Every structure is written in C-alpha cells, then in structure tokens.
Amino acid sequence: MLINCVVYQEGRRLTDIGIDDISEYIARPECFVWVALRDATDAELAKMQEEFGLHDLPIEDARHGHQRPKVEEYDDVVFAVMHTVEVESDQLQVGEVAVFAGLNFVLSIRNHSRQHLLGVRERAEREPHLLRGGPGYVLYALMDAVVDRYFPVIDTLEGELESIEDQIFEPGSLRENIKRLYVLKQRMTTLRHAVVPLLDETGKLVRGRVPRVCENQREYFRDVYDHLERMNAALESLRETISTAIQVNLAMAQIEESETTKRLAAWAGIFAVATAFAGIWGMNFEHMPELGWRWGYLLALGVIASACALVYWRFRRAGWL
To answer: How far apart are CA 290 and CA 281, in angstroms?
Structure first.
C-alpha cells in the first residue's frame, strides 16, 4: 500500500505526487523523491522497479522478505534491510524495513510491522538544513529510527530479568524461574539477530570506501554504528547474566535435591535402627532370655525409641534434619 510519495527540493517539501509522475521529478537534478510503501504488492514493486531502475535481486529480496539485516550496493543504489522489533503481549514481533537509496530517490518498504515511520519524515522536514543531504540523510534517518526503537525492548528485557533475579531464592519458584529465563533468552536472541548483523553491515557506511549516496553522511552513520555497539554490549551482558541466572537456578535445584536426599537418608537411618532391633527380637529362638521377662516388651520399645532418638539427635546436629 502506498503511504506517501513526496518530492523535495533543497531540503524542503515541494509537493505530493502520484507514482506515475516519479520519472518526471527524478530527472530534475535539484530534486529527490521519497516514496513510502507498506506491505507492498508485486504490482507496486514492479512499478517502483520500473520508475527507479532497480536491480532484480534486491527487488526479489523485498518481495519475499525474511531477509537478514544487511547493506548492499548496486551501482549507485544502496539497498538496506533492517528488522523492526516490537513488544506485543509479552511477545516480540519482528517486522522488516527495506530501503532503496539512490542519488535522487528513496524508497522505503515496511513489511509485517505496526511501527509506522511517519515520525521520521516529520522530523526530517523540520530540519531542512539536514534534509539537504538528500537520500543519504533520509537513509540515515530511517536507520536511526529503527535502531533507536531497540532501546525500549532492551530495557523491557532487562526489567524482566531483574524481576526473575528477585525471585531466584524464593522457595518453590525454581521451575517457573527456569522457564521464564529460557523464554527471556529466546527473546534476547531474537533481538540480537536484528542488532549484530546490522552492526556489521553499518560498518560499510562508516569505514573504507563509502557508497556514493552516503559519502557526505559518514558522521551520521557513525552515530548509528555507535548505538548498535552499545546495544550489542548490553545484549552480551544480558546474555551472560541470563546464563548465570540459569546456572544459579540449576545449582539451587541441585541443592534442594541434595537436601531432600539427606532428609530421606536420615529418616531411613532412623527406621533402620528400629528395624535392626525389631529383627533381632523377632527371630524367636528358643533360648532368648528377653522373651521370658515380664517387662521385656516395654523394655524393647524403650530401647528402640531411645536408639532412634539418639540417631535423630545426631542427624539434627549434623544439619540433615
């Protein structure tokens, strides 16, 4: 679906146009066209390819989606793919933004994402001195907007991890904690798949030979690169903390299991003493003097109870009970 199609001249909005008029305006050297699509159809992509002269391969990637974050160069056109990550009902929803940036046009295609990018256009239009940078600056603004929206997701994951850590030593919460930690680890990995490849690819716009459309915006892309580095460091720290929390939970489970085993062993030892005495007096040999004693039964019970009490006291003192 076409969101908007706008012509800019010298950093200022000139007019809204229809897609059939694109070729007329991109022929003007002082103008560039910024087109935004959402969940583009094959017909719309074919029209954009015809208007802007786009290569078949990136168009195919934009059509099928599910691409790894990347930045590729096709002659004077930069093709960038970024993942949008949003928190919905405690789940991470992953969308995709594909951007074609040429010398006199920008085409952005948003797929499977509820995050609109209208704020990017509004912000750029409020700063015409920056928008004079043309398509290179627009590419930066779109990339910066997508990347900045990762920060709240990281904050959400860190907050959830802190909540789990507060419950680690609460009795009876081990199974639920481990389950929540593994879910959190999956979410962290999903976000990491959006951040780490984009970090590597953004380096192409900062170091070495920079694509022509971006060569005057190197400082801005360095800012995006710095944000991604910070996020990568935060995610690495988060991953290590989650792994540590999982190990602590497993250690707590082993400790609880060991405590239970010791209790069972202690009670088994106590009953073993009683069983030993009962076994001795239950052999019913003919010549057992205790069998003829008037108070033999009570004495046997007293001996068994005393022996069990002694063993219980020793286990209690040792911390097994």
So the answer is: 8
CATH code of the domain made up of 257-318: 1.20.58.340
- Taking the C-alpha atoms of residue 148 and residue 181, their distance in angstroms, rounded to an integer, is 25
Strand partners, 92: 87
Burial tier of 32 (Cβ tally within 10 Å: 0-12, 13-18, 19+): buried
pTM: 0.78
Nearest in space to 203 (alpha carbons), one of 46, 70, 79? 70
- Residues 6 or more apart whose CB falls under 8 angstroms from that of 293 comprise 299
Give dist(CA 172, CA 170) in Å, integer: 6
199 contacts 232 by C-beta, under 8 angstroms: yes
Question: Which range (13-27, 30-44, 89-103, 243-257) has the least confidence?
Answer: 243-257
Q: Amino acid identity, residue 163?
A: S
How far apart CA 63 and CA 48 sit, in angstroms, is 12
Strand partners, 95: 84
Q: Which CATH architecture has domain 1-148?
A: 2-Layer Sandwich (3.30)
Please give the mean pLDDT across all residues of the chain. 85
SS3 at position 65: coil
DSSP state of 109: E
2-9: strand order across its sheet = 12-16, 2-9, 31-38, 105-111, 91-101, 77-88, 70-74
pLDDT tens per residue, range 119-167: 888 888 888 888 888 899 999 999 999 999 999 999 999 998 888 888 8
- If we measure between CA atoms, which residue out of 74, 73, 93 comes closest to residue 83? 93
With 90 as the cut, is the pLDDT of residue 81 above it?
Answer: yes
Domain boundaries, the chain: 1-148, 257-318
Q: In whole angstroms, how far apart are CA 242 and each of 66, 146, 167?
A: 27, 25, 14
Amino acid identity, position 219: E
Counting every residue, how long is the chain? Answer: 321
Matching fold, domains 1-148 and 257-318: no
CA dihedral 42, 43, 47, 48 (to 10 degrees): -30
